[in-house]
Amino acid sequence: MSVAKKDYKRITTKSLIEMKANGEKISMLTAYDYTMAKIVDSAGVDVILVGDSASNVMAGHETTLPITLDQMIYHASGVVRAIERSLVVVDLPFGSYQSDPKEALRSAIRIMKESGGHAVKLEGGSEIKESIKRILNAGIPVMGHLGLTPQSIYKFGTYTVRAKEEEEADKLIEDAKMLERVGCFALVLEKIPAKLAQKVAESISIPVIGIGAGSGVDGQVLVLHDMIGMTHEFSPRFLRRYMNLFEDMTAAIGQYVSDVKAVDFPNENEQY
How many CA atoms lie within 13 A of 15 on its CB side? Predict the structure, then answer.
């Protein structure tokens, strides 16, 4: 069923909570630089996530673990300069918040001050509760992230679906309620059973954004480079490719190379 959309000139954390209350789905995509963020924002995406997935798609690392706080601030700064409407959420990278709530606060403050981002996102539940509370107490909005948490990939050992067993599912529900209780404004659920994700979304009042979590949640997020087909090796079930830029760009660049070699570019109309 379609829902009438309210025209938000600027998306805020309050906007997202209103959207959930009104039954309007929330759109969220990643971006890591000025040019791409400008396009994503102008297309009407509600939330731009400056994800630590930049470690994979921008730097070529196997996991999200190597990216640093300085690098996240660099990527987020370019994104913030591009946007006019979207809410910009920035991932706190691995190692910047897990061990010490004071370190978590320092990291979050650096992101907010040096990048201009609007909120931060942290992976985990009860084990990082004190870090989340410390950040929230400083007036910094926090988005949670449960289910498959890529920063913990070496603990999980695999990127398979999480919370299929009752014990893990029960903990996920309790963690989601805890994140709402302490003051998080929204929550990402990654790669969990659709029925469980819907149950979580119905049990809390803050928006639940899914990736590989079915359609019963309050919104969806994808990695931009996957969605537009710039990456082509990664093909999980939850990914819908809306373009195939890898093939299109490869063909265009190949044609450019051929034209240069054949002295077809530049032609008479393309020179002074």
Answer: 19
